[in-house]
Amino acid sequence: MKNITDSFLCLGYWPSAGSFGFNTNILATNLINLSIVLGVLIFFGKGVLSDLLDNRKQRILKTIRNSEELRDAAIEQLEKARARLRKVETEADRFRVNGYSEIEREKLNLLNSIYTTLEQLENYKNETIRFEQQRAINQVRLRVFRQALQGALGTLNSCLNYELHLRTISVNIDMFGEMKDIN
């Protein structure tokens, strides 16, 4: 076994000065190498890292500005769309109201036209009834007149003799002559 001082776990182990060689103590050499690498990286990489961070920051800010501009444009378009929607809804309501009033007007016009037509048909019906009544009355009068005339002729023919017949004819001819003179 080795001595504890030779062990790589001992942090205080330093090789003797004046000689050049490899340090086999892994922990000590790694810490030194890491600190040197970190120092060089910080010294030289500080500018590169800050440039990268600045570029990243600028891209993020630019993205945020673009997003805000897009959001503002979207809000503006939304407001315009809402305004158009309100306008269209107003016009639709106006058309709906005008349409309903137009329908009501047309309905009233149609009802008035129907009532007028019904009145005309009622008048035509009444005129037709009066005409048919008058025709029926005239036919009845004509029949009554014919029957009366036939009865009178029958009575006259049975009561009249030749001499009375000639006298009646001559009286009628005289009356006809007088009527002709009056005109």
TrEMBL record:
It is a single-pass membrane protein. One of its GO terms (cellular component) is proton-transporting ATP synthase complex. Its main location: membrane. The keyword DNA damage does not apply. F(1)F(0) ATP synthase produces ATP from ADP in the presence of a proton or sodium gradient. F-type ATPases consist of two structural domains, F(1) containing the extramembraneous catalytic core and F(0) containing the membrane proton channel, linked together by a central stalk and a peripheral stalk. During catalysis, ATP synthesis in the catalytic domain of F(1) is coupled via a rotary mechanism of the central stalk subunits to proton translocation. Belongs to the ATPase B chain family. This is ATP synthase subunit b, chloroplastic. The gene is atpF.
